[in-house]
Specification:
Subcellular location: Cytoplasm
CATH topology of the largest domain: Fumarase C, Chain A, domain 2
EC number: 4.3.2.1
Family: Belongs to the lyase 1 family. Argininosuccinate lyase subfamily.
CATH class of the largest domain: Mainly Alpha
Largest sheet: 2 strands, antiparallel
Strand order of the largest sheet: 1-2
Protein name: Argininosuccinate lyase
CATH superfamily of the largest domain: Fumarase/aspartase (Central domain)
InterPro entries: Arg_succ_lyase_C, Argininosuccinate_lyase, Fumarase/histidase_N, Fumarate_lyase_CS, Fumarate_lyase_fam, Fumarate_lyase_N, L-Aspartase-like
Bound molecules: arginine
Number of helices: 20
Distance between the termini: 49 Å
Length: 459
């Protein structure tokens, strides 16, 4: 029998009961729901609204229900209860009688579900922040271990200038550090308590909303009861944070996929993070990197889905809001799995420094530095650019690299060239010379690594 059976003469049809239910999704909120109810009952007793004995019976009954859910002794059925809130309340009343029936005094499922969902969002944001840190640690360990390794830096996926692998990996560490901040902001956005807003307007009972907010670890109660029951911005913030981080992981994984091709050969994924083919015996496929790349699409879909659900929704609670949880849970679960998978993949991959070095020799990566050499000797940079462009053309025609040219070849283009030009063609020297803050020079990257470590220690 439904909790609103007083007003109704007929029970729900089995199909509508199942269609309207959120129980399969919100059963995951049982612990939050019980915590919210214990706080509410304790406050009701402290305010003299229910007796201390009733509050104690409620707390005890809910603790037993929680234990039974966790042991598997208690499971709920959508035909009996639409959602976890009703399922637990009905079970409590069945177990302890009238005390259980008093729990819902001054409360509605509208403030209850918003409270549970906020507790959940805070918890999941915190979990994700921990997983984010683990991935950053894995990237930084590789950056440190292969500190001197040089690879081509790309623009337009064409060889551009040489960079340190550490610098390249640290770029992802920085993206992830910002994702951490976005997750922290999402956690803070959820950190306000709707409990006591009741259905939409507050209640006539002398509730102490500050006490329940504090008991549940919220920063403060939400100051407008209509907003309290209808705001889902905090879930948008969480899914947005998940989406951006998934996009970052998709970029990282795209590079890992490219880097593990025969064409690049920059890395070898460990067998644990690759799969074979059912027909081609030689294959080693980067399935898990591809999956992370692919899952990012679904998470962005979760964000769009909730945005569209919220669009034009009138105040206050509408059943549409029941659609909020599935996508948020999916986004958080997916990102967490992707963090774990990416961390393992990064930690166990083999860096093929020789393949990176061999590619760094191709594509005239020193060209900018040769132009800078002339500019530093007084030739306007645009002219220097043209001179070096000619030298590259000569190399193209001869099928050689800049370092294969003789000093006379250089001097044929400009008499500013002297024998020290060879230093401009040395890749480690080219890299090391980029000493500006944030540059790829070894010293600059050491500073960056120290800063990233400090940020990690603070997070
Ligand atoms: N199952 C509902 C949800 O997830 C709980 C709130 C229902 N409130 C209501 N008035 N129908 O949103």
């Amino acid at each position: 029998m439904a909790l609103w059976s007083g007003r109704f003469t007929e029970g729900a049809d089995a199909f509508t009961q199942q269609f309207g239910a959120s129980l399969p999704v919100d059963t995951r909120l049982y612990a939050q729901d019980i915590a919210g109810s214990v706080a509410h009952a304790g406050m009701l007793a402290a305010q003299g609204i229910i007796s201390a004995e009733d509050a104690a019976a409620i707390a005890e009954g809910l603790a037993a229900i929680k234990a039974d859910i966790e042991s598997g002794a208690l499971a709920f059925d959508v035909q009996q209860s639409e959602d976890i809130h009703m399922a637990i309340e009905s079970e409590l009343t069945a177990r302890i009688g009238d005390a259980g029936a008093r729990l819902h005094t001054g409360r509605s499922r509208n403030d209850q579900v918003a409270t549970d969902t906020r507790l959940y969002a805070k918890q999941r944001a915190t979990d994700l922040m921990a997983a984010n840190v683990t991935l950053r640690e894995a990237l930084m360990a590789q950056a440190e271990e292969h500190f001197d390794v040089i690879l081509p830096g790309y623009t337009h996926l064409q060889h551009a200038q040489p960079v340190l692998l550490a610098h390249h990996l640290l770029a992802y560490v920085h993206m992830l550090a910002r994702d951490f901040q976005r997750l922290a902001a999402a956690r803070d956005a959820a950190d306000a308590c709707p409990l006591g807003a009741a259905a939409l307007a507050g209640t006539t009972y002398p509730l102490d909303r500050f006490a329940t907010a504090q008991a549940l670890g919220f920063a403060h109660p939400i100051s407008n009861s209509l907003d309290a029951v209808s705001d889902r911005d905090f879930l948008l913030d969480l899914i947005y944070a998940c989406s951006v981080s998934c996009l970052h992981l998709s970029r990282l994984c795209e590079e890992l996929i490219l880097w593990s091709t025969s064409e690049f050969g920059f890395i070898t994924l460990s067998d644990a993070y690759a799969t074979g083919s059912s027909i081609m015996p030689q294959k080693k496929n980067p399935d898990f990197a591809e999956l992370i790349r692919g899952k990012s699409g679904r998470v962005v879909g979760d964000l769009v889905a909730l945005m569209v659900t919220l669009k034009s929704l009138p105040l206050a609670y509408n059943k549409d809001l029941q659609e909020d949880k599935q996508g948020a849970m999916d986004a958080a679960d997916t990102l967490e799995d992707c963090y774990v998978c990416a961390a393992g993949m990064i930690a166990t991959m083999t860096v093929n420094a020789d393949a990176m070095a061999a590619q760094a020799k191709k594509g005239y990566l020193a060209a900018t530095d040769v132009a800078d050499y002339l500019a530093k000797k007084g030739l306007p940079f645009r002219r220097a650019h043209e001179v070096v462009g000619h030298l590259v053309l000569t190399c193209e025609q001869r099928g050689c690299d800049l370092e294969d040219l003789a000093l006379a070849d250089f001097q044929a283009e400009s008499d500013l060239f002297e024998s020290d030009i060879v230093e401009c063609l040395n890749l480690p020297a080219i890299v090391a010379a980029r000493t500006t803050y944030g540059g790829t020079g070894h010293d600059a990257v050491r500073v960056q690594l120290a800063e990233a470590q400090a940020a990690l220690a603070a997070d």
